Amino acid sequence: MSRKPGPKGRPELKGRAARLARLLPTGRAQAARTPFVLLVVVLLGGGLIGLLVLNSALSEGAFQVDDIQRETKNLTDEEQALQRDIDAYSAPDALQDRARELGMVPGGDPAFLAPDGTVKGVPGAASAVRAPLVLAPGAQAAATPSSASNSTPGR
User: Fold this and answer.
1) Inter-residue contact 94 to 124 (CB < 8 Å)
2) How many CB atoms are located within 10 Å of the residue 118 CB?
3) 17, 18, 14: which is closest to 2 by C-alpha?
4) C-beta atoms surrounding 74 within 10 Å
5) Can you give the residue range of the structural domain that contains 73?
6) What is the 3-state secondary structure (H, E, C) of 104-135?
7) Collapsed DSSP state (helix, strand, coil) of residue 143
8) Is residue 71 part of a domain?
9) Which of 26, 80, 98, 108 could form a disulfide with 124 if both were Cys (CB 3.0 to 4.6 A apart)?
10) Transmembrane region positions (predicted)?
């Protein structure tokens, strides 16, 4: 059972072995696959490095977003504190106290000019006496408890 030598001095294969041998690359085919394998390895390596760089950039962006959100929260808190201060300074009682500290007194009776030039009402001068400040009906109810606590003798 000797086999006939093949074209390259190898024994000739038959059947299943012959089909498998045709599928295996020879020297020239194997040399042609080397650049392809190198290309695939380079592409995979480049893709992995690209993903690493992209992941790092996204992480840095997430940290920046976190810093900006923290800064926004701090600025919002500061804005709310300033708004509370503005509301406290513009309250009727606070305005009345600050006006008195500046030496202002409540105005007298007002007079109105009609479109034809006539005067309606009798104007009165402001008195230097500390008369109570006339507030709007809603503000007067809110100012009553604090104005009672502010009225101290000798003031």
Assistant:
1) no
2) 8
3) 14
4) 10
5) 61-97
6) CCCCCCCCEECCCCCEECCCCCCCCCCCCCCC
7) helix
8) yes
9) 108
10) 36-58
Total number of domains constituting the chain:
1
Looking at residue 79, the DSSP 8-state letter turns out to be H
- Quick: pLDDT tens for 20-71: 666 666 666 666 788 889 999 999 999 999 999 999 999 999 999 999 999 9
Would you state the structure tokens that stand for residue 11, as one six-digit string? 């024994």
Q: Tell me the two tokens of residue 21.
A: 């041998």
- Cβ–Cβ contacts within 10 Å for residue 99, how many? 13
Evaluate whether residue 108 is within a structural domain. Answer: no
Q: Are 126 and 108 in contact (CB under 8 A)?
A: yes
Give me the residue label for tokens 């007298």: 108
Whether residue 87 lies inside any domain: the answer is yes
* Spatial contact of 105 and 126, defined as CB atoms under 8 Å apart: yes
Residue 47 within a domain: no
3-state secondary structure of 152: coil
The tens digit of pLDDT for each residue in 94-153 reads 998 999 899 888 887 888 999 998 988 888 777 765 545 555 555 444 444 444 444 444
Distance CA 41, CA 105 (A): 90
